[in-house]
Design brief:
This protein is α/β, with parallel strands linked by helices. The chain has twelve helices and 15 strands. The strands form three sheets. A seven-stranded mixed β-sheet has the order 7-6-8-9-10-14-15, sandwiched between helices.
Length: about 400
């Protein structure tokens, strides 16, 4: 056990929604960052310097995010974390690039925990941006591989939020399903406003009328919770193949109605074999007593990779840490993850899981969680960094 940390802190600023309808996605990230920072600080922090977490509310608005970015920099943060919303991520990539060009020696890194627009590590790749989550096309590649083996899925409905991520997901689904299962019919496509729909019943009615036997959605936050809740109340009993079926509120609000209905493609699953991870998840829920707690294993991976990179570099300077992150691997309870150097995209296994009851580590204080159905190895998930021409500092 390391001794007390007395040096100046390494400030990490989270810029995510902390108030409003999408706060249920941002607040758990903030608490998870603080939880793991405390754990890492007890073991020496970053090169003996303590980690300090700053939470800044962007109200899931790109322009407000730029205001909060400047506030974070003014407060001495040189590591910026964000992941809820690719529209925000797009604004941050451009702003961080611009700031770093104008302020050599004071650079900041953007650590992306979940904004999965593929272009961020393709044609818009940046030395100052690292993504610690599989991007949308990687997830769709894994999900469509799994769908291709399911003879019972013949008609699919696509429903997504109306912004870049939702459209990218729908296009990827169409393209990959046509290649792998040309017999599958896309019987409907809907895009709805982000975080604006209060009643999804009209959408659910259209889906039921289409005769779909499965639904693919990248909805997150309240948009996935309200969608699947409306489906359950309407009696739409078909599988939801989701990116974020484990979003806060889904499990606690659906409970038994979601069992064997809500599927998820994700870098983690609920029936973990790692008791330490399971107990940590349980402890975090019990400490907070939230109705909507969401466990973010990728936050743990991000901080542990940062710590390992800082140790490797012998420095907490963002430029040195960025260079050390390139190509860095980390052993996790669910396999090896590697930060690909050419585009700063995490290479990770993915898992298809389905909501089940009587799980050893229940989500959101329930007995329900996601049980693993299939594991897709990193080499099957990986995709080329199309159009990435990264400019590195001298």
């Amino acid at each position: 056990m390391a001794g007390p940390l007395l040096a100046a802190p390494v400030k990490i600023a989270l810029i995510d929604p902390l108030t409003g309808p999408m706060a249920s996605t941002g607040l758990p990230v903030l608490e998870h960052l603080r939880f793991d920072a405390q754990r890492l600080n007890a073991n020496g922090g970053f090169n003996g310097d303590p980690i300090e977490i700053i939470g800044l509310d962007n109200k899931i608005n790109p322009q407000e995010s730029l205001v909060q970015l400047q506030k974070a920099i003014d407060e001495g943060a040189r590591y910026i974390v964000q992941g809820n919303g690719s529209a925000v991520g797009s604004a941050l990539i451009a702003a961080v690039d611009k700031y770093n060009r104008r302020n050599p020696g004071k650079e900041v890194l953007y650590l992306n925990h979940g904004a999965v627009e593929p272009s961020f590590t393709n044609e818009r790749c940046s030395f100052w941006h690292f993504r610690f989550e599989a991007h949308s096309d990687m997830k769709m590649k894994a999900l469509t591989d799994w769908i291709a083996k399911r003879d019972d899925i013949k008609k699919i409905y696509l429903i997504n939020q109306d912004y870049s991520f939702g459209h990218a997901l729908a296009e990827a689904a169409r393209t990959m399903l046509k290649e792998k299962r040309p017999d599958i019919e896309i019987v409907g496509t809907d895009f709805h406003p982000l975080s604006k729909v209060k009643d999804f019943t009209p959408y659910v009615s259209k889906i039921k009328a289409s005769g779909a036997d499965a639904i693919i959605t990248g909805n997150w936050g309240q948009d996935i919770t309200l969608l699947v809740k409306a489906a359950a109340e309407f009696g739409l009993n078909v599988p939801f193949l989701t990116y974020y079926g484990g979003s806060p509120g889904v499990v606690s609000q659906l409970g038994e109605q979601g069992v064997d209905r809500i599927y998820e493609i994700y870098g983690y699953y609920g029936d973990t074999d790692d008791d330490a991870i399971g107990e940590r998840q349980k402890q975090m829920y019990e400490d907070k007593k939230w109705d909507y707690f969401l466990f973010y294993p990728r936050i743990t991976v991000m901080l542990e990779m940062l710590q390992k990179a800082a140790d490797k570099a012998g420095s907490n300077d963002p430029v040195a840490v960025a260079r050390a992150l390139e190509g860095l691997s980390l052993e996790t309870s669910y396999g090896t993850v590697t930060m690909r150097g050419e585009d700063h995209q995490l290479q990770t296994p993915l898992f298809v899981s389905v909501l089940k009851d009587n799980m050893p580590y229940g989500a959101e204080g329930t007995d329900f969680n996601f049980a693993k159905l299939d594991r897709i190895e990193p080499e099957a998930v990986t995709m080329p960094a199309t159009g990435c021409r990264m400019r590195r500092p001298q």
